[in-house]
Specification:
- This protein has helices spanning 2-13, 34-41, 48-67, 71-82, 92-105, 108-122, 127-138, 140-143, 148-162, 169-182, 186-199, 205-218, 222-234, 242-254, 259-271, 279-291, 297-303, 309-318, 333-336.
- The chain is mainly alpha-helical.
- The two termini are 20 Å apart.
């Protein structure tokens, strides 16, 4: 996490350079693969000082690979936007294109920069400014961390101040709102997340909605816990990560006694696509849901002929044990490559 915070600091400190505001409406999707980076590096002037930019970028890229983010393209874009021409030609249009692409994926810091840059370019009331201000608001769970004022806000504010401008008053209000809201009760966080997931019109809204649910879940919100598990199991607008989802689903069915979670787990165990097929455990999940008041007669009748008398008897008996917990395993863990990261795929946008 220290490397990640350092990447954020590099990103924000680049704002001390003079800027060249221009309007851009970008729909380009970038790969950010080796070929893309080689083309970017060719634009850097061949001097010892300037070549250091490449080695520093490679360090950020290495951190990206470990934590599953795209901080390096964001840092690169901001450098392009604010460039003075000392190590490369200014390219504000391309920079905005990259920032827009990242924000469309659910990268929250890119949305904050776009809100600020369009405020400078077009003023506070321009539709484009208002649109990005709202999207920056949705990104607050990615911004408001334990030391966010020291690691993010102050470098950002100082950078724009040195460049001759101040942060947008609208962004200032959003930061205050985000700090207050995320420090409050879990239910409002859950409702914001659900609205973004179910009604959001922008490509990255499910990623951002997931982050609001995650914030609510950390405060003990049971519905958020199940819904965030469901998102990761289905890969609903985010990277599919059933291994990451498993602890949340386990708590939902065994601790929270969520009927929705039990029915969902039963379906997964019957199908055997995401989790290993386990018809007796699927049946047990239905029995537990029935005990909690769910009408699952048709589901039980469908599974009944697929199980032996011994399996049916065992499923009923296991549920009478006071410490019995339903269990499940990911069907093909290597398929999801979750272990390749230092931290898990929590609410990760699709690359």
């Amino acid at each position: 996490m220290k490397k990640l915070r350092a990447a954020y600091s590099i990103c924000t400190l680049l704002a001390v350079l003079a800027f060249y505001p221009k309007e851009l409406f970008a729909e380009t999707v970038h790969a950010y693969d080796d070929a893309w980076w080689e083309a970017q590096y060719e634009r850097i002037y061949d001097t010892p000082k300037c070549r250091e930019i490449i080695s520093n970028t490679e360090k950020i890229k290495e951190a990206d690979r470990k934590v599953g983010l795209l901080i390096a393209p964001q840092v690169w874009a901001i450098g392009m936007y604010f460039a003075k021409g000392e190590c490369g030609d200014p390219a504000p249009d391309e920079a905005l294109e990259i920032l827009t692409d990242l924000a469309e994926r659910g990268q929250g810091i890119a949305a904050v920069f776009l809100a600020q840059l369009y405020h400078i370019n077009h003023g506070a009331n321009a539709p484009l400014t208002q649109s990005w201000v709202e999207r920056a608001k949705h990104a607050m769970p990615l911004i408001i961390t334990k030391d966010w004022r020291k690691d993010f806000y102050q470098p950002l504010a100082d950078g724009f101040q040195k460049a001759g401008t101040s942060l947008s008053p609208q962004l200032e209000r959003i930061f205050s709102w985000g700090e207050e809201t995320l420090g409050g009760e879990a239910e409002p966080l859950y409702q914001i997340g659900i609205r973004l997931i179910e009604q959001g019109a922008n490509p990255g809204d499910k990623v951002l909605g997931c982050r609001w649910l995650y914030a609510a879940e950390k405060k003990g919100h049971h519905q958020a816990r199940f819904r965030i598990a469901q998102l990761h199991i289905r890969g609903e607008g985010i990277i599919q990560a059933p291994g990451t989802a498993s602890p949340w689903l386990y708590m939902s069915v065994n601790n929270d006694n969520s009927v929705k979670a039990l029915l969902f787990l039963s379906q997964l165990l019957e199908r055997g696509a995401v989790f290993k097929k386990d018809l007796p455990e699927s049946y047990a999940a239905l029995l537990k849901a029935e005990h909690l008041g769910a009408n699952v007669k048709s589901e039980l009748m469908r599974l009944n002929p697929k199980l032996s008398h011994k399996q049916l008897k065992s499923a009923r008996w296991r549920l009478t044990l006071p410490n019995y917990k339903l269990s499940f395993q990911v069907h093909d863990p290597d398929k999801y490559q979750e272990r390749s990261l230092i931290i898990s795929h929590i609410c990760r946008f699709v690359p």
